[in-house]
Design a protein that fits this description.
The chain is an alpha/beta fold. Helix content is 38%, strand content 20%. Helix 6 crosses helix 8 (210-217) and helix 6 packs across helix 10.
């Protein structure tokens, strides 16, 4: 598993009432980090999760008392026709087989959250919106200080994010951090349709302070970001933060 270094952006000032009740060290303790691991729903991706579970990552997260979940949608093998009105539509045999496998995997490992959408790459921005919404509605507690998103071949180094979190909270700022920072665009697809660009962290691994996650989850700018930007999830997260 890869454990990349992190860089970070301090965003607009925030007002976290926990700082009055807890020390910054307590707020930024890794036990207050929520980790959401991006995984695929098709059966072919199950082996990737097995490799992750066999790595040092789960032990590291458990040692720091960090909560983590794999985030999956529903498997999709059939092309969806947006003009169809087929009331008899049903899951294909491959989709049913995949659902059975991921259901059994979930029952065995108890570390998977299922989201109510088809798990296809072109919808990954929508899946990420669902992840933000789930974090706000179900995953975060009053103590959660950071929410981490990473692919299933990566592993967070908790002590690194803890240091960044403490530095950021001392300046009374929000935090957006990640492993690969795109400060300037290198390709046209990174730009909005109007030529604008929002700096962002690559989708392999990034983290946001809990206040940012709450602000982004149901913000109009999040819902309609695709009006001026491609579907790439990491591009959109940068735009959501900028909004």
């Amino acid at each position: 598993m890869q454990s990349p270094a992190l860089s970070f952006i301090q965003d607009n000032p925030h007002h976290d009432t926990r700082e009055k009740k807890q020390s910054i060290e307590e707020v930024c303790s890794p036990q207050n980090f929520l980790v959401l691991i991006k995984g695929g729903a098709k059966a072919i991706y199950q082996r990737r999760r097995e490799i992750w579970r066999e790595s040092k990552c789960p032990a590291t997260y458990k040692e720091h008392k960090m909560m983590y979940h794999f985030m999956l949608g529903m498997p999709a093998h059939e092309v969806i026709n947006p003009n169809s009105h087929n009331q008899g539509a049903r899951a294909s045999e491959k989709e049913i087989s995949d659902m059975e496998q991921i259901r059994n995997e979930s029952l065995m490992n108890r570390d998977i959250i299922f989201l109510s959408l088809k798990d296809v790459y072109d919808n990954f921005n929508l899946k990420t919106m669902r992840m933000f919404e789930w974090a706000v509605d179900r995953g975060m507690t009053e103590e959660t200080s950071m929410v981490v998103f990473h692919d299933d071949e990566y592993c967070l180094r908790p002590e690194v994010l803890q240091t960044i979190c403490e530095k950021t909270f001392r300046s009374n700022s929000s935090l957006y951090a990640g492993s690969v920072y795109w400060r300037h665009p290198s390709y046209d697809i990174q730009k909005g349709f109007d030529g604008s660009f929002a700096p962002y962290f690559g989708g392999w691994l990034y983290a946001l302070s809990s206040d940012l996650v709450k602000e982004i989850a149901y913000h109009e700018g999040t819902t309609f970001a695709s009006m001026n930007l491609g579907f790439s999830e990491d591009l959109q997260v940068g735009k959501w933060v900028k909004n």
